[in-house]
Amino acid sequence: MIRLAVQAPAESAELVLAALLELAPSGVEQVDGDGTVEFAVYGAPGELPELDPGEAEVDGVRVVVSGTEVPDDWAERWKRFHAPILVGDRLYVRPPWEEPPVRPGVIDLEIDPGRAFGTGAHATTRLCLELLLDVAGEDGKRSFCDLGCGSGVLSIAAAKLGFGPVEALDSDRLAVEATQINARDNGVVLDSVRRANLRDEPAPPAEVIAANLMRPLLLRVAALIQHRPDALIVSGLLDHEADEVSAAFAPLTERRRLSDRGWTALLLT
Length: 269
Known about the structure:
The structure is a single chain. This protein has 269 residues and is α/β, with parallel strands linked by helices. It has helices spanning 13-23, 74-81, 123-135, 153-160, 173-185, 215-224, 242-248, and strands at residues 2-9, 29-32, 36-43, 54-58, 61-69, 85-87, 91-94, 107-110, 144-147, 166-170, 192-195, 208-212, 231-238, 254-260, 263-268. The longest helix has 13 residues, at 123-135.
């Protein structure tokens, strides 16, 4: 088994990721560094994208490619990488091989990390969940839309927190399938799970919207949006990008800002 890694500048990570998904549509592993993002795929020799080790160019972005042999116990190592997390003492996000929480009142989310992006452990997803808890239960039951749903973490959490109707959108067919499967495994029904091209079509109306995307796409969402939500959660931002994206969604104003390991999430109302 070989691990093929592509390291890109953080500000260009979205472009590189989009290009890699064309070569490896089943998904990639993401590891955040200091000003860089590393994407990795696993496979046997001959099954991986044809990228030579060393400096290369992916979709116009200069990257560093490396390949390493994975030890025989890689499956168990991979499982240890996906540890459960507790968000705000109310949401417990775990992979299927971990036991449910025993603490009363904690909402259990079982997310299979092998199906699509977003297990709850990444800083951007975790910060979104924390901000979602901020607006949960406010003003009764409210509609929710998840832009870039990935594995469905935010959509499923919203449904379990009492939001409804809940809509989940992603451009990736595999993400749509993963969200549907994870929703079923968690015993929740999402009202709509579908593919959408957020670069060309406006976000659908909802009282609460979450958009865990990256800066270029968030700015495009801001330019196209037609119905301002009561609350908007945005993440996928590097710390220095937050002010620009926050301003792009005016007249919504910033209510809370969270930062972790160089990533920022905003709650705009």
